[in-house]
Amino acid sequence: MEWQPDEQGLQQVVQLLKDSQSANTATQRAVRQKLQQLNQFPDFNNYLIFVLTRLKTEDVPTRSLSGLILKNNIATQYQDFPPTVADFIKRECLDNVGDPLVHSTVGILITTIASKGQLQAWPELLPRLCGLLGSEDYNTCEGSFSALLKICEDSSELLDSDALNRPLNVLIPRFLQFFKNGSPKIRSYAIACVNQFIVGRHQALMDNMETFIESLFALAADEDSEVRKNVCRALVMLLEVRVDRIIPYMHPIIQHMLQRTHDPDDDVALEACEFWMTLAKQPICKEVLSEHLMQLIPILVNGTKYSEIDIMLKGDMEEDDAVPDSEQDIKPTFHNSRTVTFQHELEDGGEAEDIDDDDMLSDWSVRKCSAEALDVLANVFHDDLLLHLLPQLKDLLFHPDWVIKESGILVLGAIAEGCMQGMVPYLPELIPHLVQCLCDKKALVRSIACWTLGRYAHWVVSQPPDSHLKPLVTNLLKRILDGNKSVQEAACCAFATLEEKACTELVPYLSFILDTLVFAFGKYQHKNLLRLYDVIGTLANSVGHHLNQPEHIQKLMPPLIAKWDELKDGDKDHFPLLDCLSSVVTALASGFLPYCEPVFQRCTTIVQKTLAQAHMYNQHPDEYEALDKDFMIMALDLLSSLAEGLRGHMEQLVAQSNIMTLLFQCMQDTMPEVRQSSFALLGDLTKACFPHVKSCIAEFMTILGRNLDPECIHVCNNATWAMGEISLQMGAEMEPYVSTVLPHLVEIINRPDTHKALLDNTAITIGRLGYVCPQEVAPQLQQFIRPWCMSMRNIREEEEKDSAFRGICMMIERNPGGVVQDYIFFCDAVAFYVDPKDDLRDVFHKILHGFKDHMGQETWQQFSEHFPPVLKERLSAFYSL
After folding, report:
1. pLDDT tens track for 325-356
2. Alpha carbons 372 and 300: distance in angstroms, whole number
3. What is the pTM of this model?
4. Cβ atoms of 513 and 473 closer than 8 Å
5. Helix (H, G, I), strand (E, B) or coil at 402
6. pLDDT digits (tens, 9 = 90+) for 245-279
7. What pLDDT sits at residue 357?
8. In this structure, are residues 106 and 64 in contact, taking their beta carbons and an 8 Å threshold?
9. How far is residue 612's CA from residue 621's CA, in Å, rounded to a whole number?
10. C-alpha–C-alpha distance, residues 555 and 521, integer Å
11. What is the mean pLDDT of the chain?
């Protein structure tokens, strides 16, 4: 006998559903409590499905809400549903999949049940839905397709598995039949269903690929925009994962995508525009697209213009800096734990800025996608792109219509990376024009000019300062104080980029820069204040010790410390301010002394409070909330910067605190990021005030040894670095610990694909262990000499490289046989050490000539014949070999 509801109970449930739609907080609370009580009764879920599917006279919001509550119950409690309840819900779903008012909610219920591992336990589901596709009732067909699409989205792998006897073999041909359906909604559903199986390269689709592609072509000019969008999406995915299957059709596909890229429907145009970005990543791009560039470039350029809707949405408020920010517009900030790395001699200039000239662009749009497409295509075709672009670009950049001029400036920025070489002859004219655009009456023009100038900052810095750098600095600083918040943000981003490229070239303008940035503290709203911290931190990194002048410190520090004091310990704004302060502390060094004590004390307090709260939570998890340890990590990292900047001045602060006890606890924390920052602080304290570290050295070394696990890269990296710093301070007293840690370090340096920073730190620490305990490390030389030399070859020539090479030389003197098999690697590493200290160069000379003398002239001649020419030249020039 079929389940029937109690009429009075049904009315109570309906009233409860209506009450839950009330805006009254007390009513909402009462409803939640009642729902919790009713959920104790299994057949309450029968009432919910009954309201959804049978009470067709009730309003749709009440019916849909009943289904959504049931969906949540299925997601959390389905395994506890009695079989009779589960069966009733399944039957009702299948019987009502064609209800036009609630079929979407019914589809969600079907998918949620299926996602709970119930596809196997519901064998009639797929055959029933597949059969309903042929229903003469349109609503039933659409509802079935809606449910099938959700299943395809959530369970694509399972549909092609032996566990279900591969229903995809039946479903794909069935879906393809509906590509010709008279209803555009059904056609769209059919394409969307098949699209779910492209990326997974499912065999059922591969077997029907020709039919699929031909069917897509038949729908290429479909009257319905949703159908055209799904056709474009299919072709983009096919290009990404099965380019081999569409190469024979590439010419007509490109022609189709050219049309769709300027489709009157923006959603279709956006899908089509993705095609060019995907094609640019394929090796065949240049071959298949070259002949179409003349058509494509004007379409993409036209796509970079703001639409009328964009302009309406952005409003016409040129000056809005007095309007408080909406908190939802402020992206959450996060703190990245400190990782100790070393720079290499052959580093490139870093990654290019993303095309993101304003907040509107952070939402994917035809405008942004067109600009990104030009960017990636510029990196494929380089100056060949300019042949088709330059004639149009000049008209755009100097156009009287600000919308067209703005798009031209965006295009110029988009091609900066890929077409830089070809643009160089035009930049002496274009950069002054862009600087002039910084003063345009339209805020959107000023904003995009900032971004594009940032993209060409590298070229500006390479020119004589007075020609372009000085005007750019002057005018970007004016825009930092612009009356429009979007322009302020763009100017901050551009200036930060300029700081990174110019470095000490900015020193002559420091006073002017600081005046502007300090003034911005009093002008900026919340969001741009976070950007300002980044500009100041980047400035400190770029000019370094040049910032440590009394007049600069007096300008910069009072507002920074005022902001630090304003923030509460749990305020997420601490993160960007911390990064800023860390950079400033490192740059100022002893210049930060007047401000160090309160900063040190607050950091210590944050660590202590967090550890205490974590202990309480671990003891009583039901009584306390789970802890956010990001603030403790932030405090540990700022303490690291203090130790790095203040060095010996740190001793008194440490002596008057319990930081070593707190550090000992942090080093054993279960959260890897806490340990990572703890080990960075340990290394910096070792350099700054080692006696305080040494008093706990046995315990510290035990913990460091336990964290030499390369699977946890950043923790292992910092533990390894700290161990190297401790070795230098301990000297021969490291001997008891060598046998424990060396095997781990040797294993790490020999692992394939070891992270570069970890490899560098491991090589340096092994070298330093050999420097202080050569007798203990030298016997293992043969096990690590080759990867050691390969890693050390390109590390920048600083203190770490010096001490590590001294260690390796001491080991070679004690165990020359350990280097014989890989001697060429040692020669190479030494030859590329350009400027070692004189006494270290003498040691290199002694070892190199000692090996040559031991071999004899003839054997050495034969051996060195295999050296690359550049290595021979360097050894001859530096060491007379």
Report:
1. 666 555 555 556 666 665 444 333 333 345 54
2. 10
3. 0.81
4. yes
5. helix
6. 899 999 999 999 999 999 999 999 999 999 999 99
7. 43
8. no
9. 13
10. 12
11. 90
